[in-house]
Amino acid sequence: MEFRFSKEFLIYPGETNFDDVWEKVCCKILNIEKRTNNIYRRIPPESGVDLYSPDDKIAYQCKSTDNADCKGHNLTKIVKSYESALQVKNELNWDKYCLCLNYDLSGLQERNLRKALPDVEILNQSYWLIVCKNYQPLVYENFRQLLPIYNNLIIEKIEEIYYEQYAEKLKSYLDKYPYEISVFSNKSQNIYKMKVADEFSIKDLINILTKAWNLPGQKYFSGCNFGLSHSILYNNEFQPINKTLKEIGINQESIVTLWSKIQYSESGNSGRFMQLTVLPNPDEGMKKYEELVKNAFYEYDNMII
Q1: Is 13 a domain residue?
Q2: Do 160 and 250 sit in the same domain of this protein?
Q3: Strand, helix or coil at 30?
Q4: 170/133 same-domain check
Q5: 10 belongs to a structural domain
Q6: Residue after which a domain boundary falls, among 108, 142, 176
Q7: CATH code, domain with 274
Q8: Given 102, 133, 146, 275, which is the most exposed site by the fewest CB atoms within 10 A?
Q9: How far apart are CA 234 and CA 179, in angstroms?
Q10: Any residues with CB less than 8 A from the CB of 41 and at least 6 apart, and which?
Q11: Residues 228-263: pLDDT tens digits?
Q12: Nearest alpha carbon to residue 144 among 21, 30, 293
């Protein structure tokens, strides 16, 4: 299993805010490693101490970036948190201050941090990776699985979707200039990796993904027509379907999201609004359609695993 500490991979039941996810995961891992249940999370305002271990008097500050890289590193915020923690040092009686990062620092960033805060211990991504590997069965549930979309399936779906001439063009791109990206779906708990090419359009990517996962098309439930609309989310922006991956800047190891939304209309099987013999019940129909989407991912994941 791969352990990645970015926003897309790291999860905690009931939490959607990534800062909260990171704090709770850190708290869990530290308790596991130290074989205790006494390390606890402090509720804001936490005064620069997110987690506290009363047994060994250690204060922890948790800092994270969405992509688990050092580009979002902010020394000023770290120093301010430390200064706040000093104000409650006597109250908490902490002796040691640790910084919990989901990323590794550059050499310059580490030198500047140690110069500003020489007494602070740094627990970076490399540290968490080792601990997670040592206690894999206990932390497994906090990481989305990275599952493959195999190349032969991608080719099969390209041939299924497109006319021969365009299909051959996409296949040639994939043969000559492939690279791998990770794909997250807002309808699945897992993350998927697949090969693509610069010349693929966003529309191509959407078509291949929806066919590979066998997501449901239009269905009629409880007096309503239901269907899915799809978009690609990258860098927190929905991307135009006519743009290529190269034009948008998607490249090796990029993470994109297939954002799927269930839509419905209160209409008959023909799609035209009419007098219904069944009263529309969109809530009931929505549950049934959601179950179809859930089952599509369940069947795909089971086929791969």
Answers
A1: no
A2: yes
A3: helix
A4: no
A5: no
A6: 142
A7: 3.10.20.90
A8: 275
A9: 17
A10: 23, 24, 27, 50, 51
A11: 999 999 988 999 999 999 999 999 989 999 999 999
A12: 21
> Hey, which residues does 121 pair with through a beta bridge?
98
The secondary structure of 204-231 as a DSSP string is: HHHHHHHHHTT----EEETTEEEEEEEE
Q: Is 101 helix (H, G, I), strand (E, B) or coil?
A: strand
Task: For residues 97 and 198, state if they share a domain.
Answer: no
Q: Which two tokens stand for residue 239?
A: 């991307």
Note whether 136 and 240 are same-domain residues: no
Total number of domains in the chain:
2
The single-letter DSSP state of residue 240 is P
Could you tell me which residues come within 8 angstroms of residue 215 by beta carbon, excluding any fewer than 6 positions away?
228, 260, 293, 296
Angle at the Cα of 236 from the Cα atoms of 231 and 241, rounded to 5 degrees: 30
Q: What pTM, to 2 d.p., does this model score?
A: 0.76
* Residue 8 is assigned to a structural domain of this protein: no
Radius of gyration for the alpha carbons in the chain, expressed in angstroms and rounded: 24
Q: Where a domain ends, among 142, 167, 196?
A: 142
Neighbours of 49 (CB within 10 A): 23
Tens of pLDDT, residues 145-188: 899 999 999 999 999 999 999 999 999 999 998 999 999 999 99
How far is Cα 14 from Cα 4, in angstroms, rounded to an integer? 20
DSSP label of 268: -
Domain boundaries, position 72: 18-142
Whether residue 120 contacts residue 83, with contact meaning beta carbons closer than 8 Å, is answered with no
Quick check: 69 and 103 in contact, CB under 8 A?
yes
CA distance 39 to 29: 10
Same domain, 53 and 100: yes
